[in-house]
Design goal:
This protein is mainly beta. It has one domain. The longest helix is centred in the N-terminal third of the chain and has 10 residues. The radius of gyration is 18 Å and the shape is globular. The two termini are 29 Å apart.
């Protein structure tokens, strides 16, 4: 569970759903760049960079992260991920998702090609190890889904305020190449004024609950669920002026070892191009 939570927050956390209506017109393209820190309690265990390019019709997201501080003594590693897609018929439809990471135990890579929110081609290296209690991934698990990294782009339908309780109410269908899971969001609170980098204003805080659907191991999932090891999952969403979208500012997860948090440390919001290129981010 912790691996998926970290993936959710650092490389993904999936706050898009296939049937979410998205306005066909936005005020203009924007580029959001941010650095973020990963902490377990007071200790920094990782850092990274994030970039999102959002236009009227397309989006592209790039993230990179590496283990830092005392955590490197236990497990070093670094990775990067990219995702891109289009706003089509008032839906956000990912077309490509790619993530790769390396650590002392080896490297991992996942590449998904998607069309109309269905996975049409995938590469997963290495494959998940066989286990008698692993729930099989069938074709249904690859349909009507989004990739996890697209979570950094959070569109809101209509012409009302982005920061509103109703913006949280949704269940997200996520496929990351190894597991199919749902993220259920519900309203928690609104922060009236937060200042970070180029942004100063309100933020929306949503509660989040992770539910494994397929690809997971039953024994592991049951143990984590019954022991209540993970609790108080929250996502803080920051609106991007000039668009009908928000991006993830902070993710926090309560664990037995303390609160795991991923939070933007610096934020830059600039006008973007009409057709985004592949978003890239570097940990350097």
């Amino acid at each position: 569970m912790l691996r998926y939570c970290i993936g959710l927050a650092v490389f993904t956390t999936s706050f898009l759903q296939p049937d979410l209506s998205c306005p066909t017109a936005q005020a203009g393209p924007a580029v959001v760049r941010a650095t973020f820190d990963v902490r377990l309690g007071p200790l920094q265990v990782g850092r990274g960079n994030f970039e999102a390019q959002i236009t009227e019709r397309y989006y592209a997201v790039g993230v990179s992260a590496k283990v830092t501080g005392v955590a490197r003594l236990l497990a070093g590693g670094e990775g990067s991920a990219t995702s891109r897609g289009a706003f089509l018929r008032d839906k956000l439809t990912p077309t490509l998702y790619h993530i790769s990471n390396s650590a002392g135990s080896g490297s991992n890579e996942v590449r998904l090609l998607m069309k109309a929110n269905h996975v049409v081609n995938e590469t997963v290296v290495p494959p998940s190890p066989p286990a008698s209690d692993r729930v099989p991934l069938n074709e249904a698990a690859r349909r009507n889904v989004v990739d996890p990294l697209s979570a950094f782009v959070f569109p809101v339908a209509g012409d009302g305020p982005l920061v509103a309780p109703s913006s949280c109410d949704r269940t997200l269908n996520v496929f990351d190449g190894r597991q199919r899971y749902d993220i259920t969001l519900s309203y928690s609170r609104i922060l009236s004024s937060v200042h970070v980098g180029d942004y100063e204003g309100p933020m929306l805080v949503c509660k989040a609950r992770y539910t494994p659907i397929a690809g997971h191991r039953k024994i592991v999932a049951a143990k984590e669920d019954s022991s209540e090891v993970y609790s108080d999952m929250e996502a803080w969403m920051m609106p991007i002026n000039g668009t009908r979208a928000m991006v993830l500012y902070r993710m926090q997860i309560g664990t037995a070892a303390g609160t795991l948090s991923i939070q933007a440390a610096k934020v830059s919001i600039q006008p973007g191009d009409a057709s985004p290129s592949d978003a890239t981010a570097s940990t350097e």
